[in-house]
Amino acid sequence: MKIESSCPLPVKPGMTVAQATEACYQSELGADTYVEEFEGWVDIEALEPGDPGRKIVCCVEDGICITVEMKYMELPITDTFYGVDLNCQPGEGWMTSLERVARALEDKGLEVVKRDSYVLLPDVFVAIEVGETIGWFDPAYWSREEFLEEAILA
Fold first, then answer.
1. I want to staple 36 with a disulfide (CB 3.0 to 4.6 A). Which of 24, 60, 90, 136 is the partner?
2. What superkingdom heads the lineage (predicted)?
3. pLDDT for 58-102, tens place per residue?
4. How many distinct structural domains can be found in the chain?
5. How far is 12 from 7, CA to CA, in rounded Å?
């Protein structure tokens, strides 16, 4: 899947849990001590043979999905973000992968903030953990400052 700034999945930040449930072929709303969490599986366009779709995890506040995170369950990852490969390359450690992805996104003109194991894109409210997950944050819920402080994915 060729991903750019907006969430290409059937479940998007800002959706209600009811809307997210309808968009998934399998889902579950759980709650932990700190936040409600919605998990589901969605179909994507052009599934490759054996591809089960994408697992999503959403943080829920007041019945609204304030984050939508797509987890990569199988490698290699075939998705790109603005044309940048999201895989950890053979022989690359996670820090080298993070630096490579961050540099490539900066070269495309995106503002990039590196924090811990994440590439944060505050202009589009996206967090990427290379080889693991990509998450979209609802800009109607999060301020830029909150996004930069809180953008750690499950």
1. 60
2. Bacteria
3. 888 888 899 999 887 776 777 889 999 888 878 888 789 999 999
4. 1
5. 6
Q: Residue 153 and residue 141: Cα distance in Å, rounded?
A: 16
What distance in Å separates the CA atoms of residue 57 and residue 68, rounded to the nearest whole number? Answer: 6
Domain with 61 in it: 2-150
Closest CA to 81 of 139, 41, 40, 121: 121
CB 105 within 8 A of CB 81: yes
DSSP state of 65: E
> Sheet containing 2-3: which strands, arranged edge to edge?
2-3, 80-81, 84-85
pTM: 0.84
- For 22, the 3-state DSSP assignment is helix
pLDDT tens-digit map of 1-27: 788 888 888 889 999 888 888 887 766
The average confidence (pLDDT) of the chain is 83
